[in-house]
UniProtKB/TrEMBL annotation, chain A:
One of its GO terms (biological process) is response to antibiotic. SUPFAM superfamilies: P-loop containing nucleoside triphosphate hydrolases. This is Methionine ABC transporter ATP-binding protein. It comes from the Bacteria. Keywords: Antibiotic resistance, ATP-binding, Nucleotide-binding, Transport. Residues 9-254 form the ABC transporter domain. It comes from Streptomyces scopuliridis RB72. It is a peripheral membrane protein.
UniProtKB/TrEMBL annotation, chain B:
This is ABC transporter permease. InterPro entries: ABC-2_transporter-like (IPR010390). Keywords: Membrane, Transmembrane, Transmembrane helix. The chain crosses the membrane at residues 20-40, 60-79, 145-172, 184-203. It holds the Pfam family ABC2_membrane_6. Signal peptide: none annotated.
Length: 324, 266, 312
């Protein structure tokens, strides 16, 4: 239909403006506008796995709500699988899966399997298809023992796995995950990530992931989008984030003895502890010339390079933007 | 003491924040007030001086019922749902180790709530009712004071009953059943549906002797000038007696329950 | 009884659901040539809504059965709460022979028809006043992600079988009334009885839906709805002669609750309408019900649209 081939999810200058009433005086209410999403454009091809990150209130969940058809955009153009979500919400619902990490869609007092049977009938999944999908989810998400357990008795990690399965039984082409690993222990997190990776690789399911846990992004997504104040700050590879964020790598140098801070062009000493020194240099630069120069001028024993912390990079990005 | 005053103020503020809900509640109280006032008018037209009230006193009784419905929590609602939930989830253990007394803590909060409901949900329906019906409002400011005191005792009795209901959750799996029974009793025996002096024979005598009559029947009679002098003292003694007996029972249950929690290690 | 109530209820729920679904499909900017398409899908949407309502109701019923003892107790409580209501009326009649010119059996007839009609809609849609809470805590969004009409999901939300207690009580009082009341039975009058109970249930259902729609704007206002539902049924349990003419006019022409039982019941009882409406009015409840449901559907879809553009 209207897909021009490049994007499975397409946003062109999408906006969402809310009217907020604020108390001003005893009875008077002042109306002002909040641009929760302020002209966002991006394209996600079929089968890609994208991280969508930003601080609280940045516009992440507003974007997800527009992509799923819950909210109607105030402006711009938006298509998912060629469908305008706000206009054909129920038709789109058949083709998407959504998992809200902090909100279960499972039936609290009933065995897990009952929720799946409801999905089966509500989404009108053909019987054979349903059986295959359920078996697959049960195997990969380790749900066999849990199917007959009432949901209220499941742990947080088990429930999250249960929720992910519930979102996939109707073969959605795109999966939106909102904080899928929040509150989970390390093992559950690993299990969830592994499952998502397989799902994306084998089924080609397009995944859009919002999270606060950047390990999720590092382990799952090649591409990441950063949003703040309703605008895209960054859209590209994980590696590229460092350039944009002007981040620095660190060279840890062990010398034969205590010396004054090393002085070389293109790097600066940030910490000295006995014979060990830490030098910061731009992440985009190669470490090789720096190492050669230090080896030539100083009594070098050992050295190592530390990659920048993605969390720090993003925090710096937000800070830079707020300063503008 | 200071602590409990703060808790009470908190209880007041907590309900005061829901303005739309308060407005909606006032609307409901007014609608029900109108329906019942018309019904009573028909009843008293047929039988003037029924139950010792004249028509305007009967209609006033209706509007007092609407004004005190939330204040005295006749149909329940308020702190007990929260307390039941805390008992159910085990959070109660935290409360028991607090340096404040459990019963007084919740009572202070409930008194704060009642004060808000008297102001926020009691006055407006009464005023609206007085536009459409001739109400028997006391002339003597002392009667108003006497009434307020009776209402306060009514709130304490109501609290004491609901505290017992909530504590039952320590022993019953599901506090909802007890809460529902209390709601039914409160609705019927407070005199909300019909003044207790209209209940015939033994039913009437029993109903008037039960604690729930402290919630509406007694304060309403004080308001309508049915209790004066020693009789007023007797009415107060009735309310206070029930309040003390029920609070003491609550305290006893609380002690037993505390021991239980401590034994189970929370 | 249970089955009957449920089928009847699902018909209503989906009737309204179809309106919503077709409107969503129609949303602004659809070319005129396509304008008729939603009409075709209207029937499908109705069927979808009905089916989804049934599915979700089934889940709630199974959840209820997980706490069987609690269910029995609350069903009894539901019965008892409404029974006290009628006991109060009995106590009144301990002091008088007639209220507003109506005998006890006649009042019982009004009570039974009103309580049964209300009980049916309460069973079908009684938890719709939770919509405001769902909007506030954001759980409404999860319903918007499903491929079935939102109205059907909200209507089925927290479906509570214990509300059968209220219907049982209404039917009991109605039975008592039919045994004792002095009615000059004709075929028309006999047919009037199921007609008014079903139409009445539909009118109350429209009030439930409209009340829920109002909560899209005022999330804490569920009590306003109670005034019209619980207040309405209380009002209709007493003879219209008790109330001021203006109030009776209000519930006839503005919020047409009088069509639930007053107007048709007065016809059955062979009594004058206090507003002097012609006998023909007694046959209008089905029509009034249809109009009310349509208007409630309009209110609902306006509310949902407002929610989807404001998100709160």
């Amino acid at each position: 239909m209207s897909t021009d081939g490049t994007g499975f999810i397409e946003l062109d200058g999408v906006e969402k403006v809310f009217d907020v009433r604020r108390k001003a005086g005893l009875l008077r209410r002042e109306k002002h506008q909040v641009r929760a999403v302020d002209g966002i454009s991006f394209r996600v091809p079929r089968g890609e796995m994208v991280g969508y990150i930003g601080p609280n209130g940045a516009g992440k969940s507003t974007t997800i709500k527009m992509l799923t058809g819950i909210l109607t955009p105030s402006g711009g153009r938006l298509r998912v699988a060629g469908i305008d979500p706000s206009r054909e919400r129920t038709r789109l619902a058949q083709r998407i899966g959504v998992v809200f990490g902090q909100r279960t869609t499972l039936w609290w007092d009933l065995p897990l399997i009952d929720s799946y049977r409801l999905m089966h009938r509500m989404y009108r999944v053909p019987d054979a298809r349903f059986r295959v999908n359920l078996e697959r989810c049960v195997e990969l998400l380790d749900l066999a023992e849990l199917l007959d357990v009432p949901v209220r008795q499941l742990s947080l990690g088990q429930r999250m796995r249960g929720d992910i399965a519930a979102a996939l039984l109707h073969d959605p082409e795109v999966l939106y995950l909102d904080e899928p690993t929040i509150g989970l222990d390390v093992i559950s997190k690993a299990k969830v990530r592994e499952f998502l990776r397989d799902l994306n690789a084998e089924r080609g399911t397009t995944v859009l992931l919002t999270t606060h846990d950047l390990t999720d992004i590092e382990q799952l997504c090649k591409r990441v989008m950063v949003i703040d104040h309703g605008r895209l700050l960054y859209d590209g590879g994980l590696a590229g984030l460092h350039e944009v964020g002007e981040s620095e790598r660190t060279l840890v140098v062990d010398l034969e003895r205590e010396l004054p801070p090393i002085e070389v062009p293109g790097a600066r000493a940030v910490r000295v502890e006995g014979p060990r020194q830490w030098l910061a240099f731009p992440a985009a630069e190669s470490a090789a010339p720096l190492v050669a120069r230090i080896a030539a001028e100083y009594p070098l024993v050992d050295l190592s390079v530390r990659e920048p912390d993605i969390e720090a990079v993003i925090a710096k990005m937000y800070a830079d933007r707020s300063a503008v | 003491m200071r602590l409990y005053a703060v808790v009470a103020a908190g209880g007041f503020r907590r309900y005061a924040t829901y303005r739309v809900a308060t407005f909606a509640g006032v609307f409901t109280n007014t609608v029900f007030g109108f329906i019942m006032a018309y019904t009573y008018t028909a009843l008293w037209d047929e039988r003037p001086h029924l139950g010792g009230y004249d028509l305007s006193q009967a209609v006033t009784y209706v509007w007092l019922g609407q004004a005190l419905l939330m204040t005295c929590a006749m149909m329940g609602g308020g702190f007990e749902d929260e307390l039941i939930e805390r008992i159910r989830t085990g959070d109660i253990a935290v409360d028991l180790y607090r340096p404040a007394d459990l019963q007084l803590w919740w009572m202070a909060g409930d008194l704060g709530r009642a004060a808000f409901h008297l102001l926020g949900r009691g006055i407006v329906p009464m005023v609206l009712g007085s536009f459409a019906f001739e109400l028997a409002l006391p002339r003597d400011p002392l009667t108003w004071l006497a009434f307020l005191f009776a209402v306060m005792l009514g709130v304490v009795v109501s609290f004491a009953i609901r505290f017992l209901v909530a504590l039952s959750a320590f022993w019953l799996m599901d506090g909802a059943g007890a809460a529902q029974m209390a709601m039914l009793a409160g609705m019927f025996f407070s005199g909300l549906l019909l003044p207790l002096n209209l209940f015939p024979g033994v039913l009437g005598e029993v109903a008037r002797a039960l604690p729930w009559s402290s919630l509406l029947q007694v304060p309403a009679d004080v308001f309508l000038g049915k209790h004066t002098g020693w009789d007023l003292a007797g009415a107060y003694a009735f309310q206070a007696g029930w309040a003390l007996a029920l609070l003491a029972t609550g305290r006893l249950l609380q002690t037993v329950a505390t021991r239980r929690v401590v034994v189970q290690g929370g | 009884m249970a089955e009957e109530a449920i089928t009847e209820a699902s018909v209503e729920a989906s009737g309204e659901a179809s309106v919503e679904a077709s409107v969503e499909a129609r949303a602004e900017g659809v070319p005129a040539a396509e304008a008729w398409i939603p009409r075709v899908s209207r029937r499908a949407a109705l069927r979808d809504g009905l089916r989804a309502y049934g599915l979700i109701v089934g889940m709630w019923m199974r959840s209820t059965m997980a706490y069987r003892a609690s269910f029995v107790m609350t069903a009894f409580g539901n019965f008892a709460a409404t029974a006290f209501d009628f006991v109060a009326i009995l106590l009144m009649f301990a002091h008088v022979d007639a209220l507003g010119g109506y005998s006890l059996p006649e009042v019982a007839f009004l009570y039974g028809t009103s309580a049964t009609a209300f009980g049916l809609s309460d069973l079908a849609l009684g938890s719709m006043d939770r919509l405001g809470r769902r909007v506030r805590d954001g759980t409404l969004d999860t319903l918007l992600l499903r491929p079935v009409p939102v109205l059907a999901q909200v209507a089925a939300d927290r479906f509570a079988l214990r509300r059968l207690g209220r219907i049982a009580q209404g039917l009991l009082v109605l039975g008592y009334a039919l045994l004792t009341v002095d009615i000059d039975w004709t075929v028309t009058r006999a047919l009037m009885l199921p007609m008014m109970v079903l139409s009445g249930a539909a009118i109350f259902s429209a009030v439930f839906v409209a009340g829920a729609a109002f909560q899209f704007w005022a999330q804490d206002a569920s009590e306003v709805q109670n005034s019209f539902t619980y207040g309405g049924t209380t009002l209709l349990q007493y003879p219209p002669t008790l109330f001021a003419k203006d109030l009776v006019r209000g519930v006839t022409f503005v919020v047409p609750l009088a069509f639930v039982n007053w107007i048709p019941a007065l016809y059955v009882l062979g009594r004058e309408d206090p507003l002097g409406l012609p006998d023909l009015a007694a046959f209008l409840p089905p029509l009034v019900a249809v109009v009310c449901c349509a208007l409630a559907g309009v209110a609902w879809r306006a509310g949902l649209r407002a929610y989807r553009s404001t998100g709160s």
